[in-house]
Amino acid sequence: MNNITKPNLIFKDDLLTGENIDRLTRKLKDLGDIFNDKAAFAQMDGETVVYDVESSFPVAHGTEGGLFYGITYIHPGKVGQEYFMTKGHFHEIRNRGEYYCTLEGEGMLLLMDENGNTRAEKMIPGSIHYIPGNTAHRTANVGEQILSFSAFWPSDAGHDYGTISEKGFSEILIEQEGQPVLVPNIKQ
């Protein structure tokens, strides 16, 4: 009897294939609540793709003890001085952690605890980032090419986008003199 099976997922040529793959595209028009420069945002084409996500859900959402896997591709660009970035979220079950592994490009992982303390970690190919529980997180592309990273998170974690949509992070990442810099969020 042969107990050797093919892999569940294959990542090749910047494409994730396998069973139970979900694909999501976020365009600028979907992200109006995350950028502070509303004048610059209004001047941009809402159909501009900011990021794409490919995810594998091998178990049902909410399954305790399961894991999900995904790859995010953030395009280069800015709204005013703010870099293109993901929506950002806490997990619904706040104590759930997550791992990010940078595949290509250059970016920043923004992390904010529940007291509003924000920090950033540089993302470069091969860097691995642990996101502890009770921590909001989002990523920004600070380079000239697509930033891609893989993520591993508990299938029961859920996503709380609403808190970040309403309040934002306490600091935002902008470009100043050609460098990414964290500055206080005037939306707070």
TrEMBL record:
Domain Glucose-6-phosphate isomerase prokaryote span(s) in chain numbering: 26-179
The cross-references to InterPro entries, in alphabetical order and at most eight, read: G6P_isomerase_prok, RmlC-like_jellyroll, RmlC_Cupin_sf
Catalysed conversion reaction: alpha-D-glucose 6-phosphate = beta-D-fructose 6-phosphate
Query: What are the UniProt keywords, alphabetically?
Result: Gluconeogenesis, Glycolysis, Isomerase
Q: Which SUPFAM superfamilies match?
A: RmlC-like cupins (SSF51182)
Report whether Transit peptide shows up as a keyword of the record: no
The EC designation for this entry is 5.3.1.9
What superkingdom does the record give?
Bacteria
Q: Name one GO cellular component term.
A: cytoplasm
Q: Name the Gene Ontology molecular function terms of this record.
A: glucose-6-phosphate isomerase activity
For whether the record's keyword set contains Isomerase, the answer is: yes
Associated pathway: Carbohydrate degradation; glycolysis; D-glyceraldehyde 3-phosphate and glycerone phosphate from D-glucose: step 2/4
Question: GO terms for biological process?
Answer: gluconeogenesis; glycolytic process
Q: Which Pfam families does the record cross-reference, listed alphabetically?
A: GPI (PF06560)
Family classification: Belongs to the archaeal-type GPI family.
Question: Can you name this protein?
Answer: glucose-6-phosphate isomerase
The protein's organism comes out as: Mucilaginibacter agri
